[in-house]
Design brief:
Elements lengths: L1 H19 L6 E3 L5 E3 L3 E2 L5 E4 L5 E10 L5 E10 L6 E2 L3 E7 L4 E2 L1 E3 L8 E2 L4 E10 L8 E8 L7 E8 L13 E6 L2 E14 L3 E12 L5 E2 L3 E6 L5 E3 L1 E3 L6 E2 L4 E7 L2 E2 L8 E9 L5 E10 L5 H6 L2 E5 L4 E14 L2 E12 L10 E7 L3 E4 L1 E4 L11 E11 L6 E11 L7 E12 L7 E2 L5 E3 L6 E12 L3 E12 L10 E7 L4 E3 L1 E2 L11 E11 L6 E11 L2 E2 L8 E9 L14 E3 L2 E13 L2 E12 L3 E2 L6 E8 L5 E8 L12 E2 L2 E10 L12 E10 L2 E11 L6
Parallel strand pairs: 3-15, 36-46, 43-50, 52-53
Antiparallel strand pairs: 1-2, 4-5, 5-6, 6-12, 7-11, 8-9, 8-13, 10-12, 13-14, 15-16, 16-17, 17-23, 17-24, 18-22, 19-20, 19-25, 21-23, 25-26, 27-28, 28-29, 29-33, 30-31, 30-34, 32-33, 34-35, 37-38, 38-39, 39-43, 40-41, 40-44, 42-43, 44-45, 44-46, 47-48, 48-49, 49-54, 51-52, 51-55, 55-56
């Protein structure tokens, strides 16, 4: 009997060590060599066991200390294992609790277990007890006696064994571990999935995501639970729970996330905090006890943790959010570079949340503070559950400046009074990254790219590239197609653009303005151009486009951008050559022009050219008609004569037609005249000429069609 008792107690003490070693994370290796790390599982160690006969024993487990207002409370469970062939009556036994100093404490059976008396042969029963103790008592100060009533003894009882709580006994699950717990007799596993600590000038603002998984075979309706943070000094601070209600149920094998937020003064240490979960249990008609049933070590906030973390939580009065650092770009802007940090903001609540009034800054090498503008890139006014909104922190640095590390600080600005300057700025999260920045997305030539947030989403595509040669420089022109992907008519985003050479040199570009709204699925064509030195124009390989920003907001059509975000680089397509010796189906996208029955004549000093034409237009595209000016030229092959006329498509910018020099949509005729007093004397020498058609852009001409014809004859 005694040998069994000693052996059982020693082996149970070893369980304490095994439970503490559970913090060692198991690694599973699969056949393909992949290693998957699993979270360790923590069980509150057993205090020990006492044999009551050769085959049955009492095990004392789950001893916990709960702090109360006037005194503390100890709760523990006795597990009775009946290995015999007859019933065990618990009424024949009892448990006494006393301090090492000899003070005795009255213990009581929890009301829900008061009728548990008969433990049948081969059966197991658990009975939970509670006792009030003085505030100075700690668990390691307590001893438990397992007694059997024996009226033949002097004190009418016989001590079967004494159990002492070991010094290293703990009920707190290590950081990063899952914990086996019981709620209302149902087995669960609890796990701190994520814990972050924000702060303002006065308070720490912890945010904890607690995951509960039902590991039992029955569903559990969660009772009313209380959540607290216990500091290293033993101070308790309440937490507010969201994501659960008084009707929340967790079905078998299902998980439930509970978001816990609170406020603690910054005068205390933020190290060695613990999460304590308690439950109110009724002990009588008018009395109840508040007892702890789960405790977790909260990971200490460290610089190393935030240095690699791209997703962090924070909370405010509205609820809990998750901020994810999506990307960091460094792009050219005039004589400087723009630093742009893109952050996704997501709600972890089951209700809509307001979007905080965010601010922040970027810090380089822990010493240089870069002021930023905060731009909300999605057109939304609230954050729905599990939805995201994208924001950008935008700052400016010299393009020659180099740094080795960066910290992106996200803050919230809240008005604290009626005055305009009475605001409180709260630190929310800080993302630490090295000097590397995310590459600007590169779109292959002839591919499309979706750009813009909610409410401004559009599809971008470079339809054509033209290099118009000049005397000292070339005019690089990209024709960009933009399709409105929204369900409402939209203004085009105000764009900022640069052409980029293979050596990284950038050339600021100018963009055609289209001021009319684009209908859903409608398209617009804009011209983007820049003058580049002739020696450098062959090296231009990309067009860099971003959405313009004016004073921290997306630029309106009438505004001039002072920065830009969401940069993307398009590889430039090869320039398309026109079909030689034809004036049919001339591509002036989105127009197509065909000429026929071209003929020339002369009457004294007046030279006349007449022709039939058909002008077609793809009406799906909105264009700026001012950019579609043409020039028709007659060039004698022997150089004896040359004349030209300027044409426009549809209408002039003021909406008034210009008679014969306006090409109208459809099939029409046109007659153009010139006066030359000497031309009549040249006619006998004129044989053949070229009819050349040019597109005139920014004063530069680009040849789009050419055909050799006979003077004073009508062509086909």
């Amino acid at each position: 009997m005694r040998k069994k008792s000693k052996f059982k107690q020693l082996s149970v003490k070893s369980l304490v060590l095994f439970s503490l070693l559970a913090a060692t994370v198991p690694v599973h290796t699969y056949a393909d060599g992949t290693q998957v790390t699993a979270e360790p599982v923590f069980d509150v160690p057993s205090v020990g066991s006492v044999w009551v006969n050769d085959k049955s024993y009492f095990e004392l487990k789950d001893a916990r200390l709960s702090v109360g207002a006037d005194n503390n409370m100890v709760t523990f469970t006795v597990k009775i294992v009946n290995g015999g062939t007859s019933d065990i009556l618990f009424i024949d036994y009892w448990v006494r609790m006393q301090s090492i100093a000899g003070a005795n404490f009255t213990i009581n059976v929890m009301p829900q277990d008061k009728d548990k008396n008969v433990i049948p042969a081969g059966g197991t029963q658990e009975i939970k007890f509670y006792a009030n103790v003085t505030s100075a008592i700690q668990l390691k100060d307590l001893q438990f006696k397992i007694i059997k009533w024996d009226f033949s003894s002097a004190e009418y009882q016989k001590t079967l064994g004494i159990l002492q709580i070991p010094d290293n006994y703990t009920t707190v699950a290590p950081a990063g571990s899952k914990a086996n717990i019981k709620i209302s007799k149902t087995s669960l596993q609890g796990f701190i999935k994520r814990a972050t600590i924000s702060s303002n000038e006065e308070n720490f603002l912890p945010s904890i995501i607690l995951e509960l998984q039902n590991t039992d075979i029955r569903s559990l309706k969660l009772p009313t639970m209380n959540y607290m943070i216990r500091t290293s000094d033993g101070l308790l601070y309440p937490l507010t729970a969201s994501g659960v209600t008084n009707t929340t149920t967790i079905d078998p094998l299902m998980k439930k996330e509970i978001t816990l937020t609170g406020k603690l003064p910054r005068s205390i240490s933020d190290q060695n905090w613990e999460l304590v979960i308690t439950e109110n249990t009724t002990t009588g008609e008018t009395t109840s006890v508040n007892t702890a049933f789960a405790e977790f070590k909260i990971p200490n906030p460290t610089e190393d943790t935030s240095a690699t973390e791209k997703e962090q939580s924070f909370s405010n009065e509205s609820g809990t959010y998750v901020a994810t650092l999506e990307s960091i770009q460094r792009v050219p802007w005039e004589d400087d570079d723009l630093l742009s940090a893109s952050i996704l903001l997501k709600s972890k609540e089951s209700k809509p949340l307001s979007i905080p009034n965010l601010t922040g800054y970027i810090e380089l090498d822990d010493s240089v503070k870069v002021e930023v503008k905060v731009i909300r890139t999605d057109n939304v006014i609230g954050l729905q559950p599990d939805k995201e909104v994208r924001i950008q922190l935008l700052g400016t640095i010299p393009y020659t400046y180099e740094y080795s590390k960066m910290t992106v600080h996200l803050q919230e600005s809240v008005k604290s009074g009626s005055g305009t300057n009475n605001t409180t700025v709260t630190d929310l999260v800080a993302f630490k990254v090295d000097s590397a920045v995310d590459s600007v997305p590169v779109v292959k030539a002839d591919d499309r790219y979706k750009l813009g947030g909610l409410g401004r989403l559009a599809d971008y595509y470079i339809h054509a590239l033209h290099n118009i040669s000049g005397k000292s420089s070339d005019l690089i022109t990209a024709q960009v197609e933009i399709e409105n992907l929204e369900k409402r008519s939209n203004d085009l985003s105000k764009l900022v653009a640069h052409f980029k050479g293979a050596d990284g040199t950038v050339y600021p570009a100018t963009i055609t303005e289209i001021k009319t709204k684009i209908s859903p699925s409608g398209k617009a064509l804009v011209h983007i151009w820049a003058n580049v030195a002739k020696s450098k124009s062959p090296e231009i390989t990309q067009l860099l486009i971003g959405e313009g920003i004016t004073q921290g907001k997306y630029s309106l059509v009438s505004e001039k951008p002072d920065s830009y975000v969401n940069a993307v680089a398009f590889d430039l397509p090869k320039e398309k050559a026109f079909t030689p010796d034809t004036i049919k189906d001339i591509d002036i996208f989105p127009y197509k022009l065909s000429l026929s029955r071209v003929g020339t004549s002369v009457n004294k000093t007046e030279i006349k050219v007449a022709f039939d034409y058909e002008l077609e237009k793809n009406n799906q595209y909105e264009v700026n008609t001012e950019e579609y000016k043409l020039n028709i030229e007659l060039e004698d092959l022997d150089g004896k004569a040359r004349m030209d006329w300027n044409l426009v498509t549809e209408k002039e910018a003021d909406g008034k037609t210009t008679g014969a020099t306006t090409l109208q949509i459809g099939k029409n005729k046109m007659e153009l005249t010139k006066t030359d007093n000497d031309f009549i004397f040249k006619t006998s020498f004129l044989k053949k000429y070229k009819l050349n058609l040019y597109v005139v852009f920014q004063g530069q001409k680009r040849l789009v069609a050419s055909k050799q014809l006979d003077w004073f004859y009508f062509s086909d």
